[in-house]
């Protein structure tokens, strides 16, 4: 049986024997001419992680690629220069949409990074990843918890897993053992569930309900339900499916020895994202012959079940035609679904389901400081913050480009904060972030952080140099609320059915983006990269190319539990609960 992570295109079976020798090929160091029966010109719409990945993979295989991007390469992953902050020949301070996070279980992004040359690095941009050694869970009332990010204790069987994980959680999170043991048991239920149960049942149950958060302690609800989803996977516990969050728990907590991981559990870049990743990436793509054009896709034209052309609009509003043999849509979900015309939906009616996908806000604000802050040697979750804040102090990781080399030269640190809840009133102005001016947002975030750190860690207001809010958030004075040009697709219960495959009945249209079906099933850089690889593989299959296929990586599953997953397949088919599920 084909698992959901395989997602084989409809032409793979027909043409698989012709390319079987290339399916397991690794990274390419030179351009490999690809045999393509219908041409080699590819138009990629969107220059974020998905679009750049697609361009990279296609260019390495000899395709002629043009990327159309309306704003800036890198999308949400790029650095954003703080306007007017440059002084004395130094560049502008680096801002961002939100801090970068590269868990060790990511494989697609690191594989791409290794193929991006960077001066002095043997492994390209990948060598710019550095480990965060701890995470801090800060509370407005009560002591904080600091959890080391190194490998955990090994386990050998289900009982050992429950006892080991429960002990670790109870000790590190200062949680009652009964709660910790219950959580460990629920994660064991998920990890021993077969694919059919994960898709047929757990996909349709919210994480909060699966772990019974409402029946347990405040600490349990805060850490194992709300904070686990917010900090680790940028999701919301009352809306995200158990299938997705459980899979992430399987990676973070179910693999204590980091078996098969690409690196340490928590990693960051050693400098501003654009400097140490996006700009070198763009240079590499240009070396491979990729063209970049400033333009926004206005519409796709359809003829005979194919995309016959496209129209793009430049920064000045002028419209022009795009001619190509193949078209890759790497724009965000909310943009893509506005482009599905009746003609497109007549051929690919399943794309209409994308209207059920939910978009929300998660944007960042940076506080530039005159002195280094020592809140944590890693990420911090502000457990009781109404706006679900998380942060990272960046300069401690930026060995390559310290912040003192930017702006006026007096900045020594940057506390980069993600705001994950824009709909709940704050503690200072008693308004949700959507309804606060930018100045109010800055003051409110600072106040919520101070409420957590007061009396524990020094973060003097006198150290605050300036702040910068993601430029995608714009204040609408007439409506007295913000708009957001860069919202985030969020995982919700049952949303898997609304996520499209990278390829369908429109023969030369391919979809890449974090809304496309991937194994990670989350709005992440990893999901965007994986989706682009799947789109490129579908294109290669469609044209019967002899080029190597893009490498795809599965998520980790503990081999010790495989017999229990096989047993669960039989139980699920018979309508019986998982053998470890005592809640039914």
From TrEMBL:
One of its GO terms (molecular function) is oxidoreductase activity. PROSITE patterns: TAT (PS51318). Residues 49-540 form the Amine oxidase domain. Signal peptide: none annotated. It comes from the Bacteria. Pfam families: Amino_oxidase. Coiled coil: none annotated. InterPro entries: Amino_oxidase, FAD/NAD-bd_sf, TAT_signal, Zeta_carotene_desat/Oxidored. Transmembrane segments: none annotated. PANTHER family: AMINE OXIDASE, PROTOPORPHYRINOGEN OXIDASE. This is Amine oxidase domain-containing protein. It comes from Nocardia macrotermitis. The lineage of its organism: Bacteria, Bacillati, Actinomycetota, Actinomycetes, Mycobacteriales.
């Amino acid at each position: 049986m084909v698992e959901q992570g395989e997602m084989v295109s409809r032409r793979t079976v027909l043409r698989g024997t012709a390319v079987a020798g290339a399916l397991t090929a690794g990274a390419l160091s030179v351009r490999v001419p690809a045999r393509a029966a219908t041409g080699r010109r590819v138009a990629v719409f969107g220059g974020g992680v998905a679009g750049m990945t697609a361009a990279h993979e296609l260019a390495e295989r000899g395709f002629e690629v043009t990327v159309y991007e309306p704003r800036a390469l890198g999308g949400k992953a790029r650095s954003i220069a703080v306007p007017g902050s440059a002084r004395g020949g130094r560049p502008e301070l680096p801002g961002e949409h939100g801090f970068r996070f590269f868990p060790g279980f990511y494989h697609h992004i690191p594989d791409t990074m290794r193929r991006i040359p960077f001066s002095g690095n043997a492994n390209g941009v990948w060598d710019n990843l550095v480990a965060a050694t701890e995470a801090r869970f800060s509370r407005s009332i009560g002591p904080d918890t600091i959890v080391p990010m190194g490998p955990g204790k090994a386990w050998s069987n289900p009982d050992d897993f429950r006892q080991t994980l429960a002990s670790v959680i109870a000790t590190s999170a200062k949680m009652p053992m009964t709660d910790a043991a219950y959580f460990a048991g629920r994660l064991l239920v998920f990890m021993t569930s077969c694919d059919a149960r994960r898709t047929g049942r757990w996909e349709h149950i919210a994480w909060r309900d699966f772990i019974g958060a409402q029946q347990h302690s405040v600490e349990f609800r805060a850490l194992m339900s709300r904070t686990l989803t917010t900090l680790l996977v940028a999701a919301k516990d009352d809306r995200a499916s158990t299938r997705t969050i459980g899979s992430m728990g399987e990676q973070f907590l179910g693999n204590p020895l980091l078996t098969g991981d690409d690196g340490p559990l928590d990693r960051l870049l050693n400098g501003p994202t654009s400097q140490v990743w996006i700009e070198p990436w763009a240079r590499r793509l240009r070396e491979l012959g990729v063209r970049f054009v400033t333009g926004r896709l206005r519409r796709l034209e359809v003829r005979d079940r194919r995309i016959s052309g496209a129209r793009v609009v430049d920064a000045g509003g002028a419209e022009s035609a795009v001619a190509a043999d193949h078209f890759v849509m790497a724009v965000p979900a909310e943009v893509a679904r506005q482009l599905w015309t009746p003609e497109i939906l007549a051929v690919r009616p399943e794309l209409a389901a994308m209207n059920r996908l939910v978009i929300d806000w998660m944007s960042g604000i940076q506080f530039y400081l005159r002195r280094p802050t020592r809140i944590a040697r890693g990420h911090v979750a502000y457990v009781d913050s109404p706006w679900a804040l998380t942060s990272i102090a960046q300069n401690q990781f930026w060995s390559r480009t310290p912040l003192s080399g930017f702006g006026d030269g007096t900045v020594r640190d940057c506390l980069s904060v993600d705001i994950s809840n824009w709909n709940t009133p704050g503690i200072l102005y008693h308004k949700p972030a959507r309804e606060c001016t930018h100045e109010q947002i800055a003051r409110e975030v600072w106040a919520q952080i101070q409420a957590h750190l007061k009396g524990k860690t020094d973060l003097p207001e006198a150290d605050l140099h300036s702040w910068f809010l993601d430029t995608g958030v714009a204040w609408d004075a007439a409506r007295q609320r913000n708009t957001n040009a860069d919202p985030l697709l969020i995982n919700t219960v049952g949303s898997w059915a609304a996520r499209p495959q990278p390829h369908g009945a429109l023969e030369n249209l391919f979809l890449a983006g974090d809304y496309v079906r991937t194994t990670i099933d989350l709005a992440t850089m990893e999901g965007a990269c994986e989706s682009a690889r799947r789109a490129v593989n579908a294109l290669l299959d469609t044209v019967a190319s002899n080029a190597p296929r893009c490498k795809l990586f599965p998520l980790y599953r503990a081999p010790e539990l495989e017999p229990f997953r096989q047993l669960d397949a039989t139980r699920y088919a018979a309508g019986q609960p998982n053998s470890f599920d005592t809640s039914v």
